[in-house]
Amino acid sequence: MLEVANLSVNYGSIEAVRDISFQVPEGKIVTLIGANGAGKTTTLSSISGLLRPGRGKIIFQGQDITRWPTDQIVRAGLAQVAEGRAILSPLTVAENLELGAFVRRDRAAIRQDIDRIYGQFPRLAERRSQLAGSLSGGEQQMLAIGRALMAQPKMLLLDEPSMGLAPIIINQVFEIIRQINEQGTTVLLVEQNANKALKIADYAYVMESGRVTFQGTAEEVRSSTHVVEAFLGKG
Amino acid sequence: MRTKRTVGVYLRYILYGLLAVSLAAYAIYFTQNPNVNDLNRFLINAILGLSIFVTLNTGLLSLANAGFMAIGAYSSAILVAKVGLPLFLSLPLAMLICGIVGLLIGLPVLRLTDVYLAISTLGFGEIVRVIIVTTPDLTGGATGANLSTGFPFERMRQTETWMLVLFLAFLIYLFYWLDRSKTGRALRAIRQNSGAAATMGINVVYYRNLAFVMSAVIAGAAGVFYAHQIGSIDNNDFRFSKAVDILSYGVLGGTTHWFGPILGAGLLTVLPVSLREVFGTSVAFFTQLPVIINGLALLLVVIFLPGGLFQPSRYRHKEMPINEAEIADDVAVSKESPPLVEGEAVGPPADALPLLELHDVTRTFGGITAVDNISFGIPQGIICGLIGPNGSGKTTLLNLITGIYHPNRGRILLSGRDITGLPPHLIAKLGIGRTYQNIRLFNDMTVLENVVVGHHARIKTNLFTTWLRLPQERRQEALARQEALGLLKRLGLLGFASQPASKLSYGDQRRVEIARALALHPALLLLDEPAAGMNDVETALLAEFILTLKRQGYTVVVIEHHIDLIMQVSNEIIVLNFGKKIAQDVPVEVQQNAQVVEAYFGQE
Prior knowledge:
Largest interface: A-B, 42 and 39 residues
Number of strands of chain B: 10
Number of helices of chain A: 10
Oligomer: heterodimer
CATH class of the largest domain in chain B: Alpha Beta
Distance between the termini of chain B: 46 Å
Strand order of the largest sheet of chain A: 6-7-8-3-9-10
Mean pLDDT of chain B: 88
Number of helices of chain B: 24
Structural class of chain A: alpha/beta
Helix content of chain A: 25-40%
Distance between the termini of chain A: 33 Å
Shape of chain A: globular
Radius of gyration of chain A: 17 Å
CATH architecture of the largest domain in chain B: 3-Layer(aba) Sandwich
Strand order of the largest sheet of chain B: 6-7-8-3-9-10
Shape of chain B: elongated
């Protein structure tokens, strides 16, 4: 569904991503794992059009989207939940969710989706008329995920969905990711919590200093001694 | 966005080219007709550019400069023409008057920011004009200060080019060193994130007022030279449009470096002169051409080069390579080592008295009780974990302890001293350092500069030591830099020292925040989700680092959802739920507390 070929991205003189290639097949969950500064977020930002790649191609459903503007990429069905939330603080929770559906026209279905998200995150339902800026950090993270789902994307890019969430909510969030994947949304997941990510992913790519250094099914990656030492720790 | 950047690059070339061409044209014209009026006008405008720079560089959108320029011009005109003082005496007096007025205006007005500040300062400028118009006996009123109102020209035409060059050079000297000093860093920090600046111990209100007064004094000086350049002044010279002109020097030239507004003033002053000389004034269209070109240039810069024409890389450590020997080994983190400030007391020895105490602290927002009647004590030298579901009030509690919010009820004590209701910068100075859940670094500064800002409260220098280049200035600056490098080394960030903070990954930015907070030598360190964005290996390293801090005598409160980290480092854990404390105990007990398991861990 998504194919990244020979992608390189520079920040000034620093090469953050060096010639990486990977694929996300339709209906699967693929995870990118790696240490801080390995280039995972940079890769996601290039896919969603927020950064301009130096070289390489990004193909989404057969179309070359490499130089498309972000809004057009979202319309094509590729939505991102950015690291650091980026919720719209002066708007209410409900308004943030409605804006997530900005590219859609089916009003009745939008209402249903909002209710479904309230069902998944009861905390957001309690605070639906509160300003998003007054939510706690973890609640903002829930809102950011909910808002991305509102675009009904064919494919969802998630940048550290578990960041700042209590253990009890992290389990819920991964369960929700599994559910939306079962309902047909393809997922590309960047996560520091590699153990959790590998539990739900079908396939994984490991990034180190801007390169893909290992890839395989989630099971293969989990059993690679190299990966275990570098990222998973003893746990 | 992409094309925008490319256009910006070309626009910069075009404008620099335009400036070069007009300078050349002006030079040719000047050799043929050596009239210094235009040159003097540029120099005065450059001084005005520096006056708007001080406020913009502090994040203050003030349009009061035209008003202060008027005050300076009229004060000096009256002192010279009517009282009979020489110009060189009237200059400091007029500047003093502007400074006093600036202080009186600034104290109330600087509570406002952004558009509100702009509107109210514009109002100030208009009030100055109204006062001038309604006091004809003193100022000449609506007809202005000229021969007909008893201001003799021969006394009022004394501005010479050399005076302006000298004065501008003097200002550049001041700005050059200001930029490299504690004060300059504080001003820049306030512009980038006033909240984080306050938790570094920076008194935001004080520095905003300082910048406003400096701006007023410089604008006043420009007014003095202006009055004695033209020989007659009129209240119409200081209208709204003058304030906008001055602002446009900064907007066009750039507001992150003092050279920007000088460049802006140059372009906006010299270009019209050259055009006038090339096209003459006979055809009406050409007399309007400078206005059109200036307007167009301004518009294009705002759209394609936000931040202005001259935006040098702040990352001057490229020129200043880091010398290994310069790095203070462990100095910053070790409490036993000699402190930065000569004679500064090293933290108190561990004793039975709790370092931090909360008594019945409550804070509500609208109808929601975010923190509900919480009491606890944290003894010196321990690590206390603070956990709880999302929205349970953990960050709010940290904001209450650091003075960002004040409790509705209850008291907060640090080493037995009541700190309830104190502003954040004082609480920071008393020894509470913190990091933020939503990272708040100074993004336009390098990683190293961020940590040096953290030293603010402990660097004992001031504007006099800065400008007189006293030995103390160099010593303190060098020490702060060494300590900051030492801290970066400890946190494994030395390789990033000269990079802009915003370019680092999330996890690395969190470590920079910890280094910056440690620069304060805080008795109590509050970490708000320090491991968010770190993987398990990095989290384990962080845990070890936190344990090192404990061995060195720091007391630490950690909010974290990485439960392994909390269990590993904490001596004690406090659990919040719905704003209430539901448990406070040693880790093993907390892990088995049924209430905590239900609210926080969930069933695996």
